[in-house]
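To the wet lab folks,

You asked to see what we're planning to order before we commit. Fair enough. Below is the target structure as tokens, and below that is the sequence we designed to fit it. If anything looks off to you, flag it before the synthesis order goes out.
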């Protein structure tokens, strides 16, 4: 249980997140298969374990872990459009008349309904960790839309969820650009060999660098012409590495082997204990890391009421 990406959300009011009450709330909207005429379903599943007895809320120390599953029927638009075109041509040829938009849309709806039972089904899961004491919800995703799907569904079953994306006082782009330009990042942070540079002009160019010395003359020349760093690969202490972008999205989050080995030792041989140990160690590490990251980026912008 190691998150690969991270979107961080700040609770704007105190929410108790009692495990039993949360379990009951999540159970009111369980994940289920798509019915024959449904395009998509969304609901909560056990983050670990299977069967009716597996809890929907995994509790480890002061942290909670939940998971949601989306199931959707995949209907390629090209297949639908070809079928609509074929049907329209058939009507126009046989009835010697023009098919206009309203009728075309109706034909399309009928074709979709006919195709749905035969469509492929795709399932995807998303995890979220809740740290009530810190007032944070951490979503294992780089997609704001996927994260919002989970949060809005959580809000639906809880009745209220006062939360917003965590933000900092200084634009991350400005801080990352300064780190690469000066080669003096905040204490504990180390730029790696990857970044993205963008021209500030509306139609400006984009330079993506991999396996590149960011102190090189080539990179510094790009910066001197006004390009800004919009993504930067970083390491923090000897615990994790990641790519940070200008919207505070943490991608390709990787916990170093020492932490993973420690979790294996703490968890023992049982799968459930391994899962619990890795989740707890991950959350303790992120609990230490995120305040330091926010501070390095100018300090967190705390919403009113927190």
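Sequence we intend to order:
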């Amino acid at each position: 249980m190691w998150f690969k990406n991270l979107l961080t959300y700040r609770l704007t009011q105190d929410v108790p997140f009692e495990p039993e009450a949360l379990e009951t709330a999540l159970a009111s909207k369980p994940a289920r298969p798509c019915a024959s005429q449904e395009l998509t379903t969304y609901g909560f599943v056990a983050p670990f374990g299977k069967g009716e007895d597996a809890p929907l809320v995994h509790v480890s120390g002061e942290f909670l872990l939940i998971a949601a599953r989306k199931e959707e029927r995949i209907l390629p638009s090209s297949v639908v459009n070809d079928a609509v075109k074929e049907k329209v041509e058939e009507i126009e040829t046989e009835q010697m008349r023009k098919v206009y938009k309203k009728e075309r849309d109706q034909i399309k709806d009928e074709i979709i309904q006919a195709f749905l039972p035969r469509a492929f089904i795709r399932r995807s899961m998303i995890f979220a960790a809740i740290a009530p004491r810190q007032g944070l919800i951490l979503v294992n995703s780089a997609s704001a839309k996927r994260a919002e799907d989970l949060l809005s569904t959580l809000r639906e079953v809880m009745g209220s969820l006062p939360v917003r994306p965590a933000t900092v006082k200084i634009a991350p782009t400005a801080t990352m650009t300064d780190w690469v330009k000066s080669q003096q990042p905040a204490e504990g942070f180390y730029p790696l060999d990857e970044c993205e540079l963008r021209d500030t002009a509306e139609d400006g160019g984009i330079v993506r660098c991999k396996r590149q010395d960011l102190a090189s003359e080539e990179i510094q020349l790009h910066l001197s012409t006004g390009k800004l760093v919009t993504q930067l690969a970083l390491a923090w202490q000897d615990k994790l590495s990641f790519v940070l972008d200008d919207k505070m999205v943490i991608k390709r989050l990787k916990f170093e082997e020492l932490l993973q080995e420690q979790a294996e030792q703490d968890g023992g041989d049982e799968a459930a204990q391994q899962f619990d140990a890795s989740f707890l160690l991950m959350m303790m590490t992120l609990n230490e890391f995120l305040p330091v990251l926010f501070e390095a980026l100018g300090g967190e912008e705390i919403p009113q009421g927190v």
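Structural context that might help your review: Residues 35 and 76 are 19 Å apart (CA to CA). DSSP finds eight helices and twelve strands in the chain.

Thanks,
Computational group
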